[in-house]
Amino acid sequence: MIEIKNIQKTFGDRTVLAGVSGTFKPGDTSLIIGGSGTGKSVLLKCMIGLVKPEVGQVLYSGRDFLTGDQDTQKAIRREMGVLFQGGALFDSKTVLENVRFPLDMLTNMSSAEKRERAQFCLQRVGLEAAADRMPSEISGGMKKRVGIARAIVMNPKYLFCDEPNSGLDPLTSIKIDELIREITDEFQITTVVITHDMNSMMEIGEKIMFLYKGKKLWEGNSATLTHSNVPELNEFIYANKLLRDPSSRH
Ligand SMILES: Nc1ncnc2c1ncn2[C@@H]1O[C@H](COP(=O)(O)OP(=O)(O)OP(=O)(O)O)[C@@H](O)[C@H]1O
User: Fold this and answer.
1) ipTM entry
2) Which of 90, 144, 161, 162 is exposed most, by the fewest CB atoms within 10 A?
């Protein structure tokens, strides 16, 4: 489980996170949603240690990530998988080498063990046949799958995905969402996904946190998302629907 408590972050005189708290549970794909510039990415960066908040706690199974000693921080980092926007693959490495990379960096496994583990993860995302291809030779959706395979290769307890659907067509987006949810459930990972994709919210929104101007204004799930009495959330959903379905403007 991940607990965040009263996370506050400012850049200069701009408050980006104004005290955000919440919990994320194993086996759940939790979504952080909100409009552009509301602090979603900064919150995720605070959770994975790329940005240091001025105030607040991030607890991984009770261990304090921000103030814990170096060994604790290192141990927690090893338990994290991150899927960055765009997949962030190394262009000069094959698909298999990309997936194997964390094992090369962080483990003492033998080459055979690394190959086997990387192949298992590629198989899990349905890409075993693409192992020897270069990233430039595969589609955007496949790149995301490779990114997912790499994010899970260390068998993470915690998985973070920043806009996993960006740049994908709706059908491919749904497949990526399903894959993230399946893997989360299968390996009982605590997964946190940033999205402003309405389909994702309806399909994988077991738990949804709505951020607005650096504050958590609402928390719920896909069933309650459209029935809130929070005007800012309703406006956000309405704007999203308009974008997705121009016919609803009439
Ligand atoms: N390193 C930084 N230095 C200064 N300001 C920053 C920094 N990182 C983020 N910000 C600001 O913090 C605010 C929140 O940014 P953030 O990237 O979290 O938004 P977001 O909700 O993820 O939006 P989007 O959906 O557009 O990605 C923005 O105004 C952004 O300009």
Assistant:
1) 0.96
2) 90
